Amino acid sequence: MTTMPAVLATALKQIRCEEIPIPDPEPGKVLVKTTLASICGSDLHIVYMGWNVHEFPLPHGYPGHEGVGEVVDGGGTGFEPGELVLTAPNIWGSKCFAGYQLIDPQFLLRLPTDTPQTHLLMAQQLGTVVFGCRRLPSLVGKTVVVVGQGSVGLFHDFMLRRIGAHKIIAIEPVPERLAHGRRMGVDEAIDVTGQRATDAVMDLTNGEGADLVVEGVGSVETLNQTLQLVKPLGRVAVFGLPPTMDRVPFDWDTFFRKRLDLHTVFGAQDEPGLPAFQLAVDFIRNGEIDMEPFVTHRYDVNQVQDAFDLATAKEEGALKVSLTF
Description:
The chain is an alpha/beta fold.
C-alpha cells in the first residue's frame, strides 16, 4: 500500500478525507501508523471557528494532536517497529488525522499493551490537564468552579480533587455532561448558564465567589464570566481557546479591581519526556480514572465531517469523538 487516508479541512466548517501518499521514512523522525485519533475542542476552534487559521486548505492531517499508533520505522531514534505509542505533537505541526505520520521522537510516549487503546487515547487530554494543574497553588480547603463539563472539565474534576480542592462546583447546561460531573464527584452541579449560574455560585459561596475558576469552554462570555465567579485576590485558569482571531473583549475593570491572577494552559507537549502525559497513562492503566464513560463515539476517518459535526453539536451524549483508521 502506498497511499493513506488523511483529513483535509478545505474551508470553515468543511472537512473531508482524501487519499494521499504515505510519507517516506526519515532519519531522526519516527514513522507511525495511526490507529485512533480523537477530536479535541481546540480542533473545533481551528476548523469551525478559524482560530489561528490564515488560509484554507489546512495541511493534510492537521490539526489532530491526540493519537495512538504503532511504530513502523524508528528512523534511528530508539523507537522500534511494533511499539505502541501515544502521539502528542506540538499543535503547530500536528498531523494525527492521517493514516501515517512522521513525528519527532520528543512527542512520542511508549504505551502499555494491557490497556484498551481507546482508553489510552484519552491520556493526551488528561495529560494537558495534569500539566495545567501543576501550576496551581495549594487548593486544600479551597472552593473551585469548573465552567464546562466536557472532557476537559471532567478531567479537571478528577485532578482538582486529587490536589486537595475542598468543594468543586460544576457549571454545565447539557444534562448528560452534568450527570458525568456528578459521577466524577463534584459537590454542586449548576445546570444553567450566564447570570443565573453566577448568582448560583454566589449563593453557594456566601456571596464571596470561588478561590479558583477553571474556564474549560473557550468563549468570550465564559471568559468574562470567570471574573465574576472568582473572589477578590483569587485565580482564574484559562484552558479554553479563544473562539476567534479577532481581539476578545475583556472585563479589565473587574480583573483590575479584584486584583486577580489569571493564566493560560499551554505547552504540555514541550516538556522533555512528556511527564504529564506519563502520569495520565499511569492513572488510566492503574484504574484510578475510568475512561470507559469518555469513549462515547467512534467514526471511520472517511466520516470525518459527521464526526466534527457531532463534536460541535455536543448531542447524543458525545464527550470524546474519535476517528478510526
